[in-house]
Design brief:
Strand order of the largest sheet: 3-2-1-4-5-6-7
Distance between the termini: 28 Å
Order of helices and strands: EHEHEHEHEHHEHHHE
Low-confidence stretches: 1-10
Number of helices: 9
CATH superfamily: NAD(P)-binding Rossmann-like Domain
CATH class: Alpha Beta
């Protein structure tokens, strides 16, 4: 991390990409699309910035129309919409709290109404609240984390499944902390562990329908969530403890989602791809 990160602490979660001094890389210049997702419709939660933005642009470069959902980061969301549309496809953005079951239903309905169907659901949005002392974790914090990180995943998946068909895909964003834990993220690590179990079990339940369910478990990735969550000293050291010695970029995670979304991943289901800078988790 450069010294610029020392000034990037944000207090309003999940953070703004526009407010970051050192912007994340959302796609590599060398990434060439080849119509792997041509004609498909993808819904990506948390698609306004970070990993969600990177996935949205990569999907667009592969020919998919994209719907993104986000909480309240309107400027970031509009930036993503412009980036996706620049790839020659259409993009819609909807603001709302995915912890609200009714909003999840509306979001799926909006997607189907906008594009006539849904082929790829990316459950990516999440939140975290560092706390060193487990006794200081309030019931409200615990429930809020689970509501966003795992409850919403169930709501959205339940509403999406009637629209999915053979060859379609659900991809969930887990985390390396689901496997190795984190001394400051008890509720977040627990919710991410639930996502892994959710992914494995759901994959068995819908396999006969030809719908694939997988997860991507990123390690330390440089997104707005980091400066909005951790103090400057932690931000400065972020990702340095990985075998590769640095944090990853969203552009380095998005190709895993492309693999799982398209025909190249047609024999992959119930699995988790670990994009974490070399940490071996045996999961």
């Amino acid at each position: 991390m450069s010294k610029a990160h020392e000034t990037e602490n944000q207090n309003d979660r999940p953070g703004s990409e526009r407010a970051m001094d050192e912007k994340p890389e959302y796609i590599k210049e060398s990434y060439k699309g080849s119509e792997k997702l041509a004609g498909k419709v993808a819904l990506i939660t948390g698609g306004d910035s970070g990993i969600g933005r990177a996935v949205a642009v990569a999907f667009a470069r592969e020919g998919a129309n994209v719907v993104i959902s986000y909480l309240k980061e309107h400027n970031d969301a509009q930036d993503t919409v412009k980036l996706v549309r620049a790839e020659g496809v259409e993009c819609k953005a909807y603001a709302g709290d995915i912890g609200d079951e009714k909003w999840c239903r509306q979001l799926i309905d909006n997607t189907v109404e906008d594009f006539g169907g849904l082929n790829i659901l990316v459950n990516n949005a999440g939140e975290q609240h560092p706390q060193e002392d487990p006794l200081e974790i309030t019931t409200d914090q615990w429930q809020r984390t689970f509501k966003t990180d795992i409850d919403a995943m169930f709501y959205l998946t339940r509403e999406a499944l009637p629209h999915l068909k053979k060859g379609d895909s659900i991809i969930n964003t887990a985390s390396v902390v689901a496997y190795k834990g984190h001394p400051m993220l008890l509720d977040y690590s627990s919710a991410k562990g639930a996502i892994v179990a959710f992914t494995r079990t759901l994959s068995m339940m819908v396999a006969e329908q030809g719908i694939r369910v997988n997860a991507v478990a990123p390690g330390p990735i440089w997104t707005p969530l980091i400066p909005s969550t951790f103090p400057p000293d932690k931000v400065e050291e972020f990702g340095k403890d990985t075998p590769l010695g640095r944090p990853g970029q969203p552009s380095e995670v998005a190709p895993a989602f492309v693999l799982l979304a398209g025909d190249d991943g047609s024999y992959i289901t119930g699995q988790t791809i670990h994009v974490n800078g070399g940490t071996v988790v045996n999961g």
